[in-house]
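Chapter review: from sequence to fold.
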Amino acid sequence: MARIGEIRRSEEVGYKAKGQRYHIWAACEKCGKERWVQMVRNAPRKNLCLSCVRKLAGEKYNKANHQNWKGGKHNDNRGYVVVRVDKGEFWFPMCSGGYKGRYGGEFWQVLPRFDGGWRLLAAFPV
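The token string follows.
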């Protein structure tokens, strides 16, 4: 097994040399996973492993933080308006793919009133 900081040629590690000739055995800065990383100017090219990069991107570009977020509402392939539903919401078990139809009697939501009773709304809230 290689040690952290050990440098080898790409062919020895199992990579084809396409301009980059050396790899270094490095650990991820976030989780500590060890892996072979391409070298650029005697340093690892990437400091995070793929799973940590994906988690970071998921947090950074989630919903409203993403430049293309339109409020979670769009038309499906049949022309119906569908609304994004999060995992913690009441409607999530009834959704397909995290989206629920906006209109229809079966999608009515029950909300508590101030006097303790229950009131029905005719449309799924957006």
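Two observations follow directly from the output. The beta strands are 7-9, 22-27, 34-40, 43-44, 73-75, 81-84, 99-101, 109-112, 118-121. The chain has two domains: 7-60, 73-121.
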